[in-house]
Amino acid sequence: MTLRLTDEETEALRDRAARENRSMQEVARVAVREYVETHNQAELLERVLDSELPRYSDALRRLGE
Prior knowledge:
By secondary structure, this protein is mainly α.
């Protein structure tokens, strides 16, 4: 896989890696992993809410009154 970054993105990644005393590759891999995990959790929450909220819609409507 080839990741193409803008000059600004490359410089930001280089700066972050230098501050953390890690390689640019390691910083990028951690960022990708965190992105995927965050979006996986958000999708799971959305699926749960989509399946469970209808069951409680009447009660939630009454609570809002």
